[in-house]
Amino acid sequence: MIKVGIIGCGTIGRELAYACRKRFSEEMTLEGIADSDIHRAKKLQKDLKPKVKIFPADELIQRCDLVIEAASKHAAYELAKKTLSQGKDVMIMSVGGILGKEKEIFKLAKTHRCCLYFPSGGIVGIDGLKAAGMGKIHRVTLTTRKPPQGFEDAPYVVKHNINLKNLKQEKLLFEGNATEAVRGFPKNINVSATLSLAGIGAKKTRVRIIATPHMLVNVHEVYVIGDFGSFYTRSENFPSEQNPRTSRLAILSAVATLERILKNVKIGT
Length: 269
Ligand SMILES: NC(=O)c1ccc[n+]([C@@H]2O[C@H](COP(=O)([O-])OP(=O)(O)OC[C@H]3O[C@@H](n4cnc5c(N)ncnc54)[C@H](O)[C@@H]3O)[C@@H](O)[C@H]2O)c1
Description:
The chain has helices at 11-21, 38-47, 57-63, 73-85, 102-111, 126-132, 155-159, 178-184, 190-198, 248-262, and strands spanning 2-7, 28-34, 66-69, 89-92, 116-117, 137-146, 171-177, 206-211, 218-226, 229-237. It has a five-stranded parallel beta sheet, with helices on both faces. Helix content is 35%, strand content 24%. The protein is of the alpha/beta class and 269 residues long. Strand 3 (66-69), helix 4 and strand 4 (89-92) form a beta-alpha-beta unit. The structure holds nicotinamide-adenine-dinucleotide.
């Protein structure tokens, strides 16, 4: 049995806790949960039957074989570092928090012979991008469209005083590389970080962020050109009910990553 600990009891953490308890109950035990907001942890504890234990994050890491970070960009790096240093595996959802420090984190995983997992999230095409990377990739572009409400407190929007109220038509908010995108939109654009890690790095990965009023889905378009040819993918994601910034597919992709860890047959690159 793999002992799993979940840090962050929000939209994603909650669903992964249920997945450990139901879908993967024969292979995984939910050792405990942690959250910086004790009320969030207690709410999940109350909803899970049988009851799950709440631990401080550091203690939970010590008790587990696999730690799932579903907390925040600010927590991801430290949690990954602490977990890998103890020779335990870690799944990171707040991928933006690792960007720029990936060399150090990847080295830690190698030194301690443990695994670091980054689910694909709400985008489609990580498999093709990884295959393309075995040859030469020339360009990777991500265009993300989301309803304006999800962008309102983004540092980039606040800094540039962009008014998102009463938008009548779609508005290009940002165009730049993935490093700048993650800095300006830390809660919205983890997929650009994942795309960067799987492809040609954050400085070379181009990102466009567009606010689209009257749209009910989060749309990600990925365009890749390389020596292999090119591909284009588009996903139209329903937002989760609890957190409109988080796509339903991102949650499912995290569950699918757990399944991939467990399965002896791994399909796809
Ligand atoms: N990789 C992807 O494709 C992808 C997709 C969606 C969301 N995300 C990221 O995953 C993370 C979780 O998303 P969510 O929708 O569940 O968010 P959420 O806001 O619903 O839940 C986050 C939870 O983490 C807790 N938390 C915050 N900082 C913490 C810390 N330092 N230590 C412990 N707990 C902490 C919060 O109190 C909250 O309960 C976010 O960082 C989000 O940006 C990634």
